[in-house]
Amino acid sequence: MTKLLYQHVALALFFSLSLFLSPVQDLNAADEDPTTITSLQLSVAEDGNCTLTVDSREIAESHEREDVKGEEIKLDAFGDAQVTKLDDGRLNVSYDFETIKDATQLLPSFLNEQAKRQLSQSLSIDEDEGVLVLTPGKAKKVQVPLPRMLRPPFSIRVDLLGHTEGMLQVTARPGGNLIGVSVHGKNTPEKNASAGDVRVFSRSAKSKEFDSLLKVNHPKSVKNEYQFKVDPDSINKNTMIAIAYFGDLPFAVKQIEITGKFPPSFGINLKQIGNRIIAQQVFAGAAQEAGIRKGDVLLSVDGEKVSNVDEALKALSDCELGKEVVLKVQRYGKDREIKVTPL
After folding, report:
1. Any idea which fold 268-340 has?
2. How far lies 111's CA from each of 37, 104, 106, 119, 258, in Å?
3. What value does the mean pLDDT take over residues 20-41?
4. Mean pLDDT of 90-94
5. Is 70 exceeded by the pLDDT of residue 26?
6. What ranges do the domains of the chain cover?
7. Most Cβ neighbours (<10 Å): which of 35, 100, 247, 342?
8. What's the whole-model pTM score?
9. How confident is the model at residue 56 (pLDDT cuts 50, 70, 90)?
């Protein structure tokens, strides 16, 4: 996955979210004693089978977790988050806001400075409560892309102090496709939604139409799993996860847990010229620090020869985040091997 592609996805996320996130309408009154959502988890399998787990029990019950079995590791890409490498090679990354004090750790590194400044104004840590606070601006919404892309099978879990107001939305964007989950409280901006409504929708990159995959009203004080299915071909791509909140009041997130395969970032934009794979651009990052230069011809990735850009991108994506690999390149007609540790 090249850094340029990350940037394109980020721009698409920020400037086209309005295409699929429901516009804020006049707020609707709802039940005076609405369902309080305390935890939400979206799990997506490689075969397209998906599970949405919604919990409205007390926090003590809904925030209970099974022990994550694996090796605890430290990766700078995730800041102060707790990272566990699972037996299947995926990573479990837990952002606990009782220990994380810097909200900017949630901002993707590929965002430009202006986007980071804008998002930083809407994010803060309440150290007394141990929560991440999303504060809506004048448009009554906050949209936060999470730091890294990932690939299926993956899951994202969001633990809350209690969602009763406005609308919480979790979206997964594999390539140009979309899976969206909306959870509604009282005063939701959706005209036709009520407190406790849970809706799942999707949209293909080739279509402007949304498909409704799930629509339920989640009851109080229960934990339910809801099943739905998406086209497996539509999700077998690097996926950007984002959290959005629509409403008037600040919104508190206790913990975010993400499990999946996180493609590494080398910071190289590759181009096919004849039968050669050229480093057309080398951005600030792993490859540049290791000594890869613009104009280098990529020959192999960790001993695996690559003959076209698609093969090269796949080989780079299959590398392990934080683990050194050897890129063989040709420069000025001379072959050389360069060790790179992807970020």
Report:
1. Pdz3 Domain (2.30.42)
2. 31, 11, 11, 10, 20
3. 63
4. 96
5. no
6. 3-261, 268-340
7. 35
8. 0.85
9. very high
